[in-house]
Design goal:
The protein is 44% helix and 19% strand. The chain is of the alpha+beta class. α10 packs antiparallel against α11 (243-258). The protein is elongated and about 135 Å long.
């Protein structure tokens, strides 16, 4: 067989068996036994065909000498191995192949008469340089390792592509220079080594046909179909091929591995957050046989009991070797009928799992029964690690893209509603990949029930003003003493007016403090007083030390003139930190049972807003008991924050109290994420009443009095109707039995607010254990059981 793949090269090829003949001549001289006689017999035949030693120059000679060549090479091609070995005589890197083993002949016959056998990914440039490197290594002592694996890709009669690695035995060739061979200098060799890409240079130093390759090689092929398929698989998984190309490439690879010419593969993603299979791509899109016509579906609706147990729970393969028989035995089985409707007769469903998390299901399907089964499923063991790592990487890449879309368009989100934003982000990313124009939709949650509450630090503004007032009085009194010394010593001008101004500030502070008092006093000091206290004035040592002490005390971080303000800030910080820690910790607990939207804000105290309803729940069904449980939780955590703050008082610089408020609103509302402001807001004018009440209620008075509805050490519950009152009376009784609240409950009406009237309230004091060491840890579950 002559298939000249490379026509231009520096070698003249002379197919010769001279080394074999020389070996036979040696045996004939030295061996008087059977081997010697056999060698002599062959030599007599060879003598009639001198071209076998001198070099075959015509393909017709090769055909005429076919049997004699086979006899010459009999020991190199044992007959007993001819159906096992894939072996032939060839000239390296040329398409001259003959004396094939029977197995090689069968492979070429299956490939068909139109098939041309060529080395994969090996071009004229590579061949020319490789040939030159062989000459350099043999004649100039270089060590240029240009070798790379060489492969033939040969189709089977059934349409599969099989891959064979080529191995050459070059023991029977020699390279001879002709008169046209150029003698190279060390500089020439160095130049060649630095210019692989300069083919013209290589041809200049090694002109075409300037060397002779005499002899033959033995070519052996090794079936590396599976190994090669894995290599190609990795390249495809790492690459960015378009979806149709990737699907086709992967199908071809798996067909080679399983040796099933018309096998198909698919993949269906799994979202562990909602327990659904889906067709959302995590990279290049593949077909899905589990969901051929649907975007997503709960796994329980797709899988049968056995497959659910294997794939979802045990993370093991599920196989059906005969779908028709499976359907006949299980006529009500959805999965079997589903595959039967797609003309599939045998299947392997393989879970793709990373770190215990199911990422999706690889689907192998065949139109014939028994071809895919529990035995052949084990072949996937060599494939799955690549699929797992690749899919895990694709999932992470998709998550990063989703997160980027959400952050760019929605900002950071609470986990309870993240799923809906994630779904919208996926739709947006898919549209980008398909080239469609897609506008991100607004996110709305309808029919949700709001809960609002706050634990407010009482008299915080008054305490802050008092701390500022005391600090300023201390500072001014110290400054007056210094200015009086300056005045009595007549060391500075206008000190009399300055003294009068400073004493006026003291009088004004004793009376009251206004919003701008601190700023106006500070401005006066910096403008009029501090210039005369400059060290450059060279006052006496005593006065200089007094001025230095004054400025040390002015330091906001360490000075005594800011001590009261620092104490106030420390008090506010400690109280807020305690309240927020309790609220966030309890939130994490209740979210496990009742997912809901939650946000909280730190002010002088802490306030929270909660929303719960069916539209927020992704996988669970909302029930009325969920709202009641959340309301009881809100009351419990409010009482716990009150008690914790009470026991915090002994270590606080200021012993501040807190007052708590809970707003009850039983009508469902809608909330919409505002894209412009990046937060949720009440949606629709008909829901605005709730927002009005929430903003105005904390400063409200008991009707017909000047008494605030919120009082230190008490929880105030504001509501509208008798049903809400009865519901919360039940909650209060639960907390009273738990020794969290006192027995006395006050009932009163709330003054009419602007745009809101008819509100009622009840107020109950928190029951403190005055010994902090006996303060018990609240176990909320014991209270829930009483609902």
């Amino acid at each position: 067989m002559v298939l000249p793949q490379f026509s231009n090269n520096p070698l003249q090829f002379r197919l010769s068996f001279h080394k074999v003949i020389e070996g036979l001549e040696q045996i004939a001289l030295t061996d008087i036994g059977w081997h010697g006689k056999h060698a002599q017999s062959l030599l007599e035949k060879v003598a009639e065909h001198p071209e076998l030693k001198d070099g075959i120059t015509d393909i017709k000679q090769l055909e005429e000498d076919e049997q004699l060549i086979a006899d010459l090479l009999a020991e190199l091609f044992p007959a007993i191995l001819t159906h096992n070995e894939i072996k032939a005589v060839s000239i390296p890197y040329r398409g001259l192949i003959f004396n094939q083993s029977e197995r090689f002949k069968a492979i070429l016959k299956d490939a068909g008469p139109e098939f041309e056998i060529n080395i994969r990914d090996f071009d004229d440039h590579q061949f020319y340089v490789l040939t030159c490197c062989i000459i350099l290594n043999q004649f100039y002592g270089t060590n240029l390792d240009f070798a790379k694996p060489l492969f033939y890709d040969i189709p089977t009669a059934g349409g599969l592509i099989k891959h064979y690695r080529i191995l050459y035995n070059a023991d029977f060739v020699e390279i001879i220079p002709t008169e046209n061979a150029i003698k190279l200098t060390p500089g020439d060799i160095k130049l060649l080594m630095d210019n692989y890409d300069n083919l013209a240079l290589w041809k200049e130093k090694f002109p075409e046909g300037s060397w002779i390759l005499k002899g033959f090689t033995i070519m052996t092929l090794i079936d590396v179909t599976v190994e090669n398929a894995l290599s190609i698989l990795k390249s495809n998984l790492l690459g960015t091929a378009p979806a149709p190309d990737l699907q086709q490439n992967l199908v071809s690879i798996f067909r080679s591995i399983f040796r099933i010419a018309d096998m198909q593969i698919g993949f269906t993603s799994f979202n562990p957050e909602d327990g659904k299979f889906n067709n959302a791509p995590t990279g290049q899109k593949l077909n899905s046989f589990l969901l051929p016509n649907e975007h997503e579906k709960y796994c329980e609706q797709v899988l049968c009991d056995a497959s659910y147990e294997n794939i979802i729970k045990a993370h093991t393969y599920f196989t059906v070797s005969d779908v028709s028989a499976f359907v006949k035995e299980n006529p009500d089985n959805y999965l079997g009928k589903h595959f039967k409707s797609q003309n599939i007769e045998s299947i392997i469903l393989a879970p793709v799992v990373k770190d215990g998390v199911l990422l999706g299901v690889l689907e192998l399907v065949s139109p014939r029964s028994r071809e895919l089964n529990s035995v052949t499923a084990n072949k996937l063991e060599i494939v799955m690690p690549f699929l797992v790592d690749t899919l895990d990487r694709k999932v992470n890449e998709m998550q990063n893209r989703i997160q980027a879309v959400i952050q760019d368009n929605y900002t950071t989100l609470h986990p309870s509603v993240y799923w809906k934003f994630k779904r919208e982000a996926i739709n947006y990313i898919q549209s980008l990949e398909t080239g469609l124009v897609y506008t991100l939709k607004q996110i709305v949650f309808t029919d949700v029930y709001p809960l609002y509450g706050q634990v407010d630090i009482k008299d915080s503004s008054i305490t802050r003003n008092l701390s500022v007032k005391n600090d300023l009085l201390n500072q001014l009194n110290q400054l007056i003493l210094i200015v009086e010394q300056l005045h009595s010593s007549k060391l500075a001008a206008a000190t009399e007016q300055h003294l009068l101004d400073l004493k006026t500030f003291v009088i004004e502070l004793d009376a009251d403090i206004k919003a701008d008092t601190e700023q106006s006093i500070q401005h006066y000091l910096e403008t009029h007083i501090y210039p005369i206290l400059s060290p450059a004035n060279h006052y006496s040592k005593v006065l200089t030390d007094d001025i230095a002490d004054y400025f040390n005390e002015v330091d906001a971080l360490t000075g005594g003139f800011h001590k009261n303000r620092r104490d106030y800030e420390k008090t506010l910080s400690l109280v807020n930190e305690k309240l927020v820690n309790i609220l966030d910790k309890r939130q994490a607990e209740i979210q496990e049972y009742l997912p809901h939207y939650y946000e909280r804000f730190k002010t002088d105290g802490v306030e929270h807003s909660l929303y719960i309803g069916s539209s927020i729940l992704q996988n669970k069904q909302f029930k009325p008991i969920d709202l009641r449980r959340l309301r009881l939780w809100e009351l419990l955590v409010t009482a716990e924050m009150e008690i914790a703050q009470h026991h915090l008082k002994p270590i606080l610089p200021y012993h501040l109290d807190v007052a708590s408020l809970i707003l009850v609103f039983s009508a469902s509302i809608s909330i919409r994420f505002r894209m412009d402001e990046k937060h949720f807001d009440i949606d629709g004018a008909y829901n605005i009443r709730y927002e009005v009440i929430k903003k105005r209620i904390d400063k409200a008075y008991v009707k017909n009095t000047k008494e605030r509805i919120t009082q230190p050490g008490k929880i105030t519950i504001v509501y509208s109707g008798i049903e809400e009152e009865e519901e919360y009376m039940h909650y209060l009784q639960i907390l009273q039995r738990g020794k969290l609240l006192t027995d006395t409950i006050e009932h009163f009406e709330v003054e009419d607010l602007q745009g809101v009237s008819g509100l009622k309230a009840m107020r109950v004091a928190v029951l403190y254990d005055e010994n902090p060491r006996t303060h018990r840890t609240l176990i909320y579950d014991t209270f829930y059981q009483q609902l």
